[in-house]
Design brief:
142 residues; 4-stranded antiparallel β-sheet; alpha+beta; elongated
C-alpha cells in the first residue's frame, strides 16, 4: 500500500474524531523517517514525546496515543509493526510472539546466553515499534 492510500484510509477511519490530528502526526512522523530510510525501532515514549512536543497532545493522554498505535498496528492498515526484545545484562535479544506466549504459559523464559530460566522476564521485555517496510513511498512522476 502506498503512503497516500494509508493517509486517505486514516482520514476516512478517523473522520470527525478529535484524535485525527494525533493520528496524522504519528503517521507523518514515521513517513519522515521512511523518507530518510530510517526503519529503526522506537519506543512508545518517543512517539508520545513527539506528540507532546508538537503541541497536539497534552501530558496525561497516554491512553489516547496507545489507541492510535494499536490502530496503526491493526491488520487492515499494518502501518507499524511491533518488535519484542528481552533485555538482560545490557544485551538485547529479539523475541517472537510465540516465545512470549510460551513464557506466559510457563511463567518463565530461557536466557538465550546462559540457558537459565528467567522468572521475572516481564520486567525485562521491551516493546518497540517500527515502520512496516511493505508500504511504499509514493513516487512522483514528472
Amino acid at each position: 500500500m502506498y503512503f497516500s492510500q494509508i493517509e486517505a484510509l486514516i482520514k476516512n477511519d478517523w473522520r470527525g474524531d478529535n484524535s485525527l490530528k494525533i493520528v496524522l502526526l504519528v503517521f507523518e512522523y514515521f513517513k519522515k523517517r521512511a523518507l530518510r530510510n530510517d526503519y529503526s525501532n522506537i519506543g512508545f515514549h518517543q512517539i508520545y514525546h513527539e506528540a507532546i512536543k508538537s503541541g497536539v497532545v497534552k501530558l496525561g493522554c497516554e491512553d489516547e496515543v496507545k489507541i492510535i498505535i494499536n490502530y496503526l498496528l491493526d491488520k487492515h492498515i499494518e502501518f507499524l509493526k511491533v518488535n519484542y526484545f528481552l533485555v538482560d545484562n545490557g544485551l538485547w535479544h529479539p523475541l517472537s510472539v510465540e516465545e512470549l506466549l510460551d513464557a506466559k504459559l510457563h511463567g518463565s523464559i530461557v536466557d538465550p546466553n546462559t540457558g537459565e530460566l528467567i522468572y521475572d522476564y516481564e520486567s525485562k521485555v521491551c516493546i518497540l515499534f517500527s515502520l512496516n517496510r511493505f508500504h511504499q513511498l509514493d513516487v512522483e512522476v514528472k
